[in-house]
Structure formats: C-alpha cells, structure tokens
Amino acid sequence: MAKGAEAKQKIFTKLLEVFPGSFMQDDKILRIVEQENGETVEIKVTLTAAKDVLGAGTSSNRAAGSTTVEEFDWSDNGGAAGGKSSVEAAAAADLNETEKANIRKMMEALGL
Predict the structure, then answer these.
(1) pLDDT tens digits, one per residue of 36-84
(2) Between the N and C ends of the chain, which has fewer C-beta atoms within 10 Å?
C-alpha cells in the first residue's frame, strides 16, 4: 500500500460524510457538489502524502499566529494530541467572529 493511503482514505471518508452529495472519481478525486449563485459547481479535492515530514515546530508548518503545531490524533478523543487542535489554535489568531464561528461549525460537522 502506498505511503499515506490509509490516512487519505480516512480523510476522504470523513469529507464524504460532511458534504452530502459528494462522490469519488476514480478512487483518487473527491468531488464536492455545491450551489453558487444558483449554479451547481463541483469542487475537486485530491490528497497527496508528503514525501518529507516537517514535524512540529518548523517555521514552514505553523498556523498563522501559533507558536506550536500539534500532531493530529485520529482517535475520537476530541482533536489533536494535547486536547486543542491546530485549527482551534489558528482560530484564536487574528480571525473575526464570523470566521471563528465558521471554523467551530466545520469542526463540529467533522466531529472534532
């Protein structure tokens, strides 16, 4: 099995749950169907496993305004290892209330 294949499948499965009407194309591309200005649009999503793992704390993988990056925990214990997801950490940085509400809504929909 290719590197990251299991992780990609988990992510695709969760996205399919979150976006009703979405579907897979050729087992590699997720198509999310949405309405925009009265027209149907399909957003294509592909996932690629990184060849190099940067790891926590490197400057190129920090969320805006955060000082640490936590490894995501795929178990159902509520998010990232340590209790606060990197999304939550990013939400605390320079976002308006609407953006924070949108992030909370998305995390709730994803079960995070």
Answers:
(1) 999 999 999 999 998 888 876 555 555 555 545 455 555 555 444 455 5
(2) N
